[in-house]
Specification:
The longest helix is centred in the C-terminal third of the chain and has 19 residues. A 6-stranded mixed β-sheet has the order 2-1-6-5-4-3, covered by helices on one side. The N and C termini lie far apart (about 45 Å). The chain is of the alpha+beta class. It contains 3 helices and 6 strands, in the order αββαββββα.
């Protein structure tokens, strides 16, 4: 929860995007990212921690992928997992961009998924054909 240390990992002109059920946004520059991180810190209880589950690193292309989950008091919170992708500035070794995708905390019932799948599939075919 050391937001200053987290910000120190980014270049000044960073871009950070998040597709999260609560914290959706695109943040350009360290100041914008700082405001986002401080908002997260204010809203999430101090007992919450992001725990890294897996890491994929590609130093040749300067990218890192992370799989993570959220815990409260050491207990994983159901349906609060995510993946993040970062690009690294090769000159400084700092992060220049980040993209987070968080699992939806509420899932559609299976029957409703089946009902929506057909019209959604047809819509995609119509739009991208």
């Amino acid at each position: 929860r050391d937001m200053k240390a987290a910000l120190d990992c980014f270049v000044d002109e960073c871009i950070y995007e998040t597709e999260d059920p609560v914290f959706v946004g695109s943040f350009h520059g360290k100041e914008s990212l700082r405001e986002h991180l401080m908002k997260n810190e204010e809203i999430l209880p101090s007992a919450c921690r992001i725990v890294l589950d897996d890491l994929a690193d590609d130093p040749v292309n300067g990218t890192t992928g992370v799989k993570w989950h959220l815990e409260a008091n050491g207990v994983p919170i159901p349906n609060l997992r995510g993946c993040s992708m970062y690009t690294i500035d090769k000159a400084s070794g700092l992060l220049k961009s980040g993209f987070d995708v968080t699992e939806a905390p509420v899932k559609l019932p299976e029957m409703l998924q089946d009902i929506l799948a057909v019209p959604f599939g047809k819509l995609l075919i119509r739009v991208f054909s």
